[in-house]
Design goal:
By secondary structure, the chain is an alpha/beta fold. Helices cover 44% and strands 24% of the residues. The protein has one domain (3-151): 3-Layer(aba) Sandwich (Rossmann fold), CATH 3.40.50.360. Strands 1, 2, 3, 4, 5, 6 and 7 form a seven-stranded mixed sheet that branches. Helix 1 packs across helix 5 (131-151). The chain binds flavin mononucleotide (FMN). Flavin mononucleotide (FMN) binds next to helix 1, strand 3 and strand 5.
Length: 153
């Protein structure tokens, strides 16, 4: 069965809302029955990534960058995964209270270094999540799950 790895740093109710919306999308029956594995960013390993058919990332914006926890994840997996995860589909949502630009750019830059391919543009949410934000995260989760199913039919 195809596997979607969800690596998230969830530090507040707003981020929990976005995570739950993304997981609901990933687990929607129409995505084709993908196994969804969730890992807090500080616990995710290269083995998790190597066993995944797509990756969904979630982080707050912190001082113009991704969270230290998600950066630690990338630092941990970058070289162990560099050769074997080329073309892996990924998605990312970022939550902030004023400006997520730097955090999105940082994630996209490292993902490009890994030769991962975005399943859809990053979802950026400012302030209290609304229905449209939850829907965007749902779509993100569903598209990442669909991409996982395509990689491992
Ligand atoms: C140290 C620190 C730095 C932050 N830097 C940013 C930032 O650069 N851009 C931004 O939009 N939000 C920033 N935030 C806000 C967080 O992204 C936000 O607190 C987090 O997503 C959780 O959302 P909440 O505060 O609504 O619960 C920062 C928060 C902290 C604690």
């Amino acid at each position: 069965m195809a596997r979607l790895l969800v690596v998230h740093h969830t530090t507040s109710p707003a981020l929990q809302e976005l995570l739950e919306a993304a997981l609901d999308g990933a687990r929607a029956p129409e995505t084709g029955g993908v196994e969804v594995v969730t890992r807090p960013a500080l616990t995710a390993t290269a083995v998790d990534v190597l066993g995944a058919d797509a990756v969904l990332l979630g982080t707050p914006a912190n001082i113009g960058y991704m969270s230290g926890a998600l950066k630690h994840f990338f630092d941990t997996v970058y070289y162990p995964c560099l050769t074997d995860t080329t073309g892996l589909a990924y998605g990312v949502y970022v939550h902030g209270n004023n400006d997520t630009t730097g955090a999105v750019r940082a994630v996209e830059s490292i993902a490009a270094g890994l030769s991962w391919v975005a399943a859809r543009p990053a979802v950026s949410v400012i302030g209290a999540p609304g229905a449209a934000d939850r829907e965007a995260c749902w779509d993100l989760g569903a598209l990442c799950a669909y991409a996982a199913a395509q990689r491992s039919p």
